[in-house]
Fold:
Amino acid sequence: MRVSRNLSVPIVTTALALALAACGSGGTAQNASAKGTAQGGGPGSSAEHTDDVSVGVKPDTKAVALLPAAVKARGTLSVAMDLTSPPTTFMASDNKTPIGFNPDMARLIAAELGLKLQVNNIKFDTIITGLQAGRYDFTASTMGATKDRLKVLDMVDYFKAGTGVSVPYGNPQGLSPHTLCGHRVGVQSGSTAELQWLPLRSKEDCTSKGKPAIKAVTLPSLNDALTQLVSKRIDAVMNDFTGLQWASTQQPKTFEVLKPLVATKTVAVALKKDSALTPAVKAAIQSIVDSPKYAEALGRWGFDGLGIKTAAMAVPQD
Structure:
């Protein structure tokens, strides 16, 4: 598998980021494990799984039949990902191998279609424009479907996730997801936390009640936000629950995920609007969902209970 380095962002920029990317107390990611509590399920174990989950998967003939001739002749499928958000999408300790649930799903999609996978590591907030420009075929990046995104993208459901809030361990300011008024909250650029959930909480919990708005601090990645949280430059981080939970288990007594979650949602694989590839990708995802490989991919990242049964075209999660 080739990882495109053009348009790439740094994977590890600080010692903290390295720890969050998968290293345990022993200093080697291969020996690290994290207990990821899945919504609706019990604790699971997540380690640095660098093996290819798609080994042994045979192409689904019905899905392959839906492939555009040009893609079939090309023989490759190009996926865009921001490899800075463990445990869904990140780089292994070798700094070469994309790992996490999203790379696993991308590999399985390519295998179901009988294609080789090309992974392109780019910033999250440039993924949509890259899809629109035809630089990449699809993205599997825990992207929620919004009305605006659905205007320019085809989106197919592939698992469930949620948005949560993390604070320093022990919650010294006594915050909750509904008491963030006037506080500095880090969000990832282009995420639904930035575009949807923080503005909603700010309006409903704060400004509509005469309280100061939540101060959004937009940052390139979850690692950047958590680094700023540790250095006390922000008071909280709003991001995908899976990434926040992973960080709290990788760095014990450093972060704390607040309850309840801000929102739960079904997330979707995305392609450019009216892509000729959409029917084939949709059929491939359904084939994965119906196979034991789906439960295997979910389970090895601690996502038991977050699976879906139908790879439906996404509807707005606004």
In short: The chain has eleven helices and 15 strands. Residues 1-46 have pLDDT under 50 and may be disordered.
